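DEPOSITED CHAIN:
***
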Amino acid sequence: MGPEGTKITLGDTAVQVIATPGHTPGTISYIFPVKDGGRTLTVAYSGGTAFNFARQAQNFVIYRDSQQKMGEAVRAAGASVLMTNHTEFDRAYDRARIAQLPRQAGEPHVYESTPAAVQRYFAMMSDCAEAQRLLTEGQ
């Protein structure tokens, strides 16, 4: 994919690639803009959503650190949309159906949240990994 911080340009859209190992060794996440009518929203796409690895303390450290790194990038970008690689965790099925319904003027897109909420997601994932690391070390 390229070195850390690679940006892929597609037309007038730049996709920021962020290495976030932990879920798997090669997991990558993305930050990119999307259009909602005349507004631009910033999406944080988490490439690694679950602890599907061996329950060893070092693996939780890698996952924790990746979530912290993604949280910092999300904060810098001001992302207000969160999407994940496992759509059952971000309610993508329901949201895709709801997005097809008419909206009132000024009503936010169904995927739109707040930058603070998106940042909390990555902080929570980091905290969960740290809690699991502590439990693993305590065994």
